[in-house]
From TrEMBL:
Residue spans of biased composition, Low complexity class: 191-200
Regions annotated as coiled coil: none
Organism listed in the record: Vigna radiata var. radiata (Mung bean)
Lineage: Eukaryota, Viridiplantae, Streptophyta, Embryophyta, Tracheophyta
Protein name: Uncharacterized protein LOC106765653 isoform X2
Gene3D superfamilies in UniProt: NAD(P)-binding Rossmann-like Domain
The encoding gene: LOC106765653
Length: 244
């Protein structure tokens, strides 16, 4: 951390997390050029201080270097205590990533500790930084995990589809109720007779639930798909669920 006693402008702080010699440095320089007080954060405080001095000299701006380890929640909290002592954060850019010492040639070669470290920096670190700069309103605790699953499915599909392995990510957006009973055809006919689309959805207690038997048919469809037209992602939802 440097020059923390200096007063920041009332405009707000541009906090750039993950500042290296390329993109992070350019983003910090741009916001400094546009008149923002800039806080740059990274693990290497020595290099970061040199970047801060360089930008401050070139742009005649206030630039503060603050050490952060995005894989450590305590480090993130302490870093943003320093940032928030300068003023409110108007802009937060999260550019941190975990560099690999060597790049695996296949999915099987990926080490679990490297995978965990990458998640800790790229995803969990962003979570901690955002949490330090937002209000108390809660969010969907499962959302980040599900989005990580989506990304993993895409990575697996990219590597293994050429080998004849069909990897599909199925989004089920709605409440799943008990099976209706009867055949799928009967279920769909019932849905059509009540004005619902053929989605295997049944009303219950004023709230629509999704028929697990109908969902199972979709999974079977993915299994028997022609490999010339494989689905990578499918979104299944109840008519009662609003898009986004």
């Amino acid at each position: 951390m440097r020059n923390m006693a200096s007063s920041a402008s009332s405009r707000g702080i541009a906090a750039i997390v993950g500042v290296g010699p390329n993109l992070g440095l350019s983003i910090a320089r741009k916001f400094a050029h546009e008149g923002y007080t800039v806080a740059i954060l990274a693990r290497d405080l020595g290099r970061l201080s040199r970047f801060a001095d360089e930008i401050a000299r070139e742009e005649k701006a206030q630039v503060f270097a603050i050490r952060i380890d995005c894989s450590d929640s305590r480090s993130v909290r302490e870093a943003f205590e320093g940032v928030l002592s300068l003023g409110f954060v108007e802009i937060l850019v999260y550019n941190a990533y975990q560099p690999l010492s060597s790049y695996p040639t296949s999915f099987q070669d990926l080490r679990i500790d490297s995978f965990h470290k990458s998640l800790a920096v790229s995803s969990v670190g962003a979570f901690h930084c955002a949490q330090q700069n937002t209000g108390p309103n809660g969010g969907d605790e499962t959302g980040c995990g599900k989005f990580a699953l989506r990304a993993l499915s895409q990575c697996l599909a990219k590597e293994f589809q050429p080998q004849g392995v069909h990897v599909a990510h199925v989004i089920i957006d709605g409440l799943i109720g008990p099976p209706r009973g009867g055949t799928l055809t009967t279920s769909l006919q019932r849905g059509n007779s009540s004005g619902e689309q053929s989605s295997g959805v049944v009303g219950g207690g004023g709230e629509s639930t999704m028929d697990p038997d109908a969902l199972a048919q979709t999974f079977w469809h993915l299994h028997v798909q022609d490999r010339n037209a494989w689905t990578q992602e499918m979104d299944l939802r109840s008519p009662s669920v609003r898009f986004f």
